[in-house]
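Researcher: Here's the sequence for the chain we discussed earlier.
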Amino acid sequence: MIVEAGGDDFAALIAGRAPRALALPDTPIEAAEVLQMLADLAARVRATFSPAAWLIVEAGEIVGLCSVVRTPADGVIEIGYGIAPSRRGRGCAGRAVADLVAWARQTPGITALTADTAPENRASHQVLARNGFVQIGERIDPEDGRLICWRHGLGRM
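Model: Thanks. This is the structure I predict for it:
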């Protein structure tokens, strides 16, 4: 399940504490500096669009995060997600992406979801493909190098 994440949630995670009445996995979701970057990103996106980030929650435990990567344009929302290393391979990312697709379908004005993956990230390729995303091309990112671009038209092309 995905639960909208706010600034207080990120502050708790950065401090190594579980927000709300939730538990944390036995391995960190991300390093504190990455969590801070995600908190800053969410705050920037939240200035013009909300929700900007979600906690991925399984059985009362925060197992990961998903975010809107940049302010949506023309109804298209780019997403990113990550799962704590000790919780990978259990279907958590797939269920979270399915929840994001369902949310997007019910949200007026959203026409598509997009995501980028590293070519070697086969697990993420499977998560996206199983949730109806299709590969639409590749691009070169100055920081991350070659990326595969994915899109889900939400049944409204």
